[in-house]
Amino acid sequence: MVASDLDRTLIYSAAALALGMPDAQAPRLLSVEVHESKPLSYLTEEAAGLLERLASEAVFVPTTTRTRKQYQRIQLPGAEPTYAICANGGHILVDGVADRDWHESVLRRLAEECAPLSEIRAYFTATTDLSWVRKHRVAEDLFAYLVVERERMPEEWLRRFGEWAEERGWTVSLQGRKVYAVPKPLTKSAAMREVARRCGAGLVLAAGDSLLDADLLLAADRAWRPGHGELADTSWTAPHLDVLAERGVAAGEEILRRFRTAVSEHRSPGVGVLPGAAVPVQLNGSPAALPDQA
């Protein structure tokens, strides 16, 4: 099974496409997201072909902090994935439909283990102003984020907010122009483990670029991160993590190549495409129910 972050890992906005790449070296692009009649996200034509082939070789699970509505704007190459993880693990989509039982279990954990979202929103209201905050947003009634003018945002505010949120069971993450506040129990890794259990995956691969992807990468058997992003900025690493030199869309291509190579190495001769049977599995070095599946 391949669980990959999307934004700035596999797909890129116009602003994030090259990340320092000279115009003359820019590859041909495919738009995979349109909103209000404007293309928003892209991958290279090469990456599109790699992704389509990967999806025929393993269970590909888009794993994103995006809301369900934001995710459903994306049209990735090939057939629609059977599973997708949205809202940082708050929703598991099965054939495009949210799994109600999973979501209710997430809500119970949040109620038991961290301060309510209302406290975070109240802090935003009391401590920020329009000189550097452009938007306040709530995602799926699960977490909140700010769209900021990063160069104007007081660094001391971010530090104080992080410490305050930590005491209340929340994680703060700065990604591009967004400051995220996410409950600690709301993780991509928990949703990934549940999907792996359902599809009987014996090997789980993952990729991501941000602090909110760290738990996903740690929970996978093998993982990759690009040469850009929040994790790269902090030199974050792990024993089973490969750090790529590539940045921007070139990193997206390389991640897909690494996924396909790992899947090919894992599959035994004669093993076909995953049947998708729901077989229990444990990850990251623990015994797996079906060791020849990926």
Notes on the protein architecture:
By secondary structure, this protein is α/β, with parallel strands linked by helices. It has 2 domains: 2-107 and 186-266, HAD superfamily/HAD-like (Rossmann fold); 115-183, Gyrase A, domain 2, CATH 3.30.1360. It is 32% helix and 23% strand. The chain has 9 helices and 15 strands. It has helices at residues 45-57, 68-71, 100-113, 117-127, 155-167, 188-199, 214-219, 230-233, 249-266; strands spanning 2-4, 12-13, 29-35, 38-44, 60-62, 83-86, 91-94, 97-98, 133-139, 143-148, 170-175, 178-183, 205-207, 222-225, 241-243. The strands form 4 sheets. A 5-stranded parallel sheet has the order 5-1-13-14-15. The radius of gyration is 19 Å and the shape is globular.
In short:
The protein is of the alpha/beta class and 294 residues long. Helix content is 32%, strand content 23%. α1 packs parallel to α9 (249-266).
From the structure above, extract its key features.
alpha/beta; Rossmann fold; four-stranded antiparallel sheet; 9 helices; 32% helix; disordered C terminus
| Inertia-based shape | globular
Number of strands: 15
What proportion of the residues form beta strands (DSSP E)?
A: 15-25%
- What sequence of helices (H) and strands (E) makes up the elements? EEEEHEHEEEHHEEHEEHEHEHEH
At the first level of CATH, the class of the largest domain is Alpha Beta
Structural class estimated from helices and strands: alpha/beta
Number of helical segments?
Answer: 9
Characterize the largest beta sheet: strand count, sense, and whether it forms a barrel. Answer: 5 strands, parallel
Helix percentage = 25-40%
Radius of gyration: 19 Å
Would you identify the CATH H-level superfamily of the largest domain?
Answer: HAD superfamily/HAD-like
Distance between the termini: 5 Å
CATH architecture of the largest domain: 3-Layer(aba) Sandwich
CATH fold-type name of the largest domain? Rossmann fold
